[in-house]
Amino acid sequence: MLILGLQKTTLLDFPGKVASTIFTGGCNFKCPYCHNSELVIPPADAFAFSEEEIFDHLIAKKRVLDGVCITGGEPTLHKDLPDFIKKIKDLGLLVKLDSNGTNPAMLRGLIDNGLVDYIAMDIKNSKEKYNSIACMKNFDIKPIEESVSILLEGKVDYEFRTTIMKECHDSSDMIAIGEWLKGAKAYYLQSYKESEQVINPIFSPHDYDTLKDFVNLLKPYITNTNLRGVD
Ligand code: SF4
User: Fold this and answer.
1) Measured from the CB, is residue 74 less than 6 Å from ligand 1?
2) Each residue's pLDDT tens digit, 50-76
3) Is 169 exposed, middle or buried (0-12, 13-18, 19+ CB in 10 A)?
4) Which residue(s) pair with 212 in the sheet?
5) Residue ranges per structural domain of the chain
6) 112 class by beta-carbon count within 10 Å (0-12 exposed, 13-18 middle, 19+ buried)
7) pTM of the model as a whole
C-alpha cells in the first residue's frame, strides 16, 4: 500500500460515523477536476506513511472511532488492499471504500469476504461521455459497468455520486445515467467547485436551479437522488 495521507478524525467522509480517512497514492484516471492531484500523480519526494504508523494510530483511537474511510487516488490499484482492510476489520472497525469502479474483481472479493461495509463509487458521466472526464488511456467502460452491476445487487451498503460540471453534464446525460443506475439505493450530485488546485482548471459549475432540475430528472429512476455539499 502506498499511503500518502491520514486524516485522523472526520465526521464527513463515512456517513453517520466517526472515522479516520486514509489516502492512497496513484490513480488510473486523470479527471481534470480532481482536487487530489498530489495523490493521483505523487511527487517523487512525497511523504508516505508506513502501515505501522497507520495501525499505531488506529489501535490508539479505536475506542473513539466507528470506522475507516479508504480513499485516494484509487485504492483498488493496490493489490494488498484486501489484506490491509482485513487488519482494520480485525480491530473491530467498519470500512468504507471510495472507488472509481475500475477493479470490479477486487470489489467483488471485498464484498464476498465481508471486508467492506460501505462503498462510494464515482459515476463520471453517461457511458458515451465517460472518458471525456476520466481521461484514461485505453479506456474500457466494461469494468465500470460491472462494478455498477455488483453494487446494484445490494449485498453491501453503497452510494453512487457524480461531480457535475457545466461543460460536461446536460439533461440528456442525467437521463442516460438514470436509466443506467435505475433502482440504485442512493445517488448524490456534487457541484464542481472552481479551484486552481485541480489537475486542470477548465471546468465551471452549473447554477443551483440546473442542479435541482437534474435531481428532478433523476428521481423517477433513483428515488433517493440528492444534492450534496451544495448551498
Ligand atoms: S478517479 Fe478520483 S482520484 Fe482519480 S483522478 Fe478522478 S477524481 Fe481524482
Assistant:
1) yes
2) 999 999 999 999 999 999 999 999 999
3) buried
4) none
5) 3-228
6) exposed
7) 0.96
100 lines ligand 1 (CB under 6 A): yes
CA angle in degrees (0–180, nearest 5) for 201-28-211: 45
Residue 30 CB less than 6 A away from ligand 1:
yes
CA-to-CA separations, 156 to 13, 123, 124, in angstroms, rounded: 17, 18, 21
In the block, cell 449485498 appears at 155
- Those residues whose C-beta lies under 8 Å from the C-beta of residue 140, and which sit 6 or more positions away, are none
Strand 118-122 to 225-228 pairing? unpaired
Q: Ligand 1 pocket, 98 CB below 6 A?
A: no
Question: Does CATH place domain 3-228 in 3.20.20.70?
Answer: yes
Atom in ligand 1 nearest the alpha carbon of residue 100:
1
d(CA 135, CA 31): 6
Residues in the chain, total: 231
Residue with cell 457541484: 191
Distance 60 CA to ligand 1 centre (A): 31
